[in-house]
Specification:
Layout lengths: L12 E8 L3 H11 L2 E8 L2 E7 L10 H13 L2 E8 L3 H14 L6
Antiparallel strand pairs: 1-4, 2-3, 2-4
Helix pairs in contact: 1-2
Length: 109
């Protein structure tokens, strides 16, 4: 895994995404499945509407009430932002998965 020289070990990487209300639930579900997301904060006009801490293995039944609330929030908001706190940059996760999948593939000659 390559490390960004500006990102110290254990440091969090944050990004902010702009979404329309009807896209909110699907984007949050997508982020949860990425696996490197540690916290999702839903904001509107700079005000925090909802904050969801994610720990490894917290999916399914435990997330159902939060996802229902996110769906309701998305129905009420025209536009909002999602602040995503990750344990590593998104590109690193993709590269790690590629490395993992290609590690066992024998080289072709």
């Amino acid at each position: 895994m390559s490390q960004d020289p500006n990102l110290q070990p254990g440091q969090r990487y944050q990004e902010e995404l702009q979404v329309m209300g009807e896209q909110l639930l699907s984007k949050v579900k997508e982020l949860i499945h990425e696996g490197n997301v540690r916290r999702i904060i839903i904001k509107q006009e700079g005000h925090t509407i909802m904050e969801i801490p994610l720990t490894v293995g917290v999916v399914g039944v435990i997330m159902a009430p939060a996802l229902a609330a996110i769906g309701a929030i998305g129905a009420l908001l025209a536009q909002c932002s999602i602040e995503v706190v990750r344990s590593e940059r998104p590109g690193e996760v993709a590269q790690d998965k590629v490395d993992e999948l290609t590690r066992d593939v024998p080289p072709t000659t």
